Amino acid sequence: MSQFRRWPTERVTRLQELHAAGGRPEDMAPKLGISAAAVRAKAWTLGLKFGRSPNSGFKPQPTVVAPNVLPLVEAALRECPAAAARTFGNRGSQTTCEKSWPLHLAAYVVNAELGFSLVVAGRAIGRDANLAAYAVRRIEDRRDEPAFDAFMERLGDRAREMVA
After folding, report:
1. Rounded CA gap, 87 and 141, in Å?
2. Position 58 pLDDT exceeds 80
3. Domains: count for the chain
4. What is the residue range of 103's domain?
5. Is the entire prediction scored with pTM above 0.85?
6. 130 exposed, middle or buried (CB, 10 Å; 0-12, 13-18, 19+)?
7. Is the pLDDT of residue 34 over 70?
8. Are 80 and 115 contained in the same domain?
9. CATH number at residue 102
10. Distance, CA of 76 to chain centre
């Protein structure tokens, strides 16, 4: 014998009526004499979807947008080619560093200097939060060098002035 029982037609009809009236699975379950999980499962098989009611307490959060600091970073790297050249070092290919380094600096400035989340920092550079986290770690590792630390301090000051 199968462990799954077929739903009586009357119960399916009653479920559809309750769903059309805007009922929630938790409210429908006692009326149907089954669990809320069973109501959700059967509703799913019937293609019925439960949306969020206006009184559910769910309020979408506004999207936070970080300022575009990439032009600021690129200008700072042009003004201080020694810092840019020093930061490239001998890791990876020169082309890869030239493309990724400004993005990493921008993600660091948005996250650490301006106080935005990693998600927002990732959005600011057109990448995801994981890459932003990697970029912030990479910059933090280099902050031990005094010349680079001074460069980052100036960059952070400029970014805060730009936002203010």
Report:
1. 11
2. no
3. 2
4. 70-163
5. no
6. exposed
7. yes
8. yes
9. 1.10.1750
10. 28
